Amino acid sequence: MFFNIQAQDSKEKYIVLLQKIGSLSKLFSDSSVPYLYYRVAENVFCRVFDAKNHSRSDTSADASKDKLGIGLKTYIGKTGSSYQKIAEFNKKRSDYSELKFNPEKIAEVVSSLRNKRIDFAKSAHGLDNIIYHCVTRTQNKFQIFEEHMEYINVDLINVKKSSNNAIHFTDGTHDYNFNLSKSTLFKRFVTVNPFEFDVNVLQDPFKFLESFDESTQLQPHLSNNQSVILPLYSKKKGEKLVHKHSGLNAWNAGGRIRHMREVYILIPSWIHRVFPDFFPARENSFNLKLPNGKVLKASVSQDGGKALSSNPNKDLGEWLIDKVLKIESNDIVVYKNLEDVGIDSVEVTKIDDENFEINFKQVGSFETFEDYNLIEV
Question: How many beta carbons lie within 10 A of that of residue 315, not counting itself?
Answer without folding.
Answer: 21
